[in-house]
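@channel sequence for tomorrow's demo:
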Amino acid sequence: PTRGSAPAPEFIPFSTATRQCLVAATERATQRGHRWVRSEHILAALLVDDATEAAKVLVTAGITAHALEVSALSRPPADTDEFSE
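structure tokens (generated this afternoon):
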């Protein structure tokens, strides 16, 4: 490690809501054939429950589930040919 930094912990204790959001984002990515969870998948997962503070902030900023679906999630995945496993 460099000066002032610490190694990353092996386990990060996410809250239940955070885990649920990450699971939902992973499911959205998988459904669309994307190999990685990207920011648009996480945004879509945050918008699932419009009563959350995160969803309220996103909607106030003009980001809706429909707009996200049309603009970001409808594109073909950019991660299909760049890397091999």
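heads up for whoever presents: The two ends are 29 Å apart (CA to CA).
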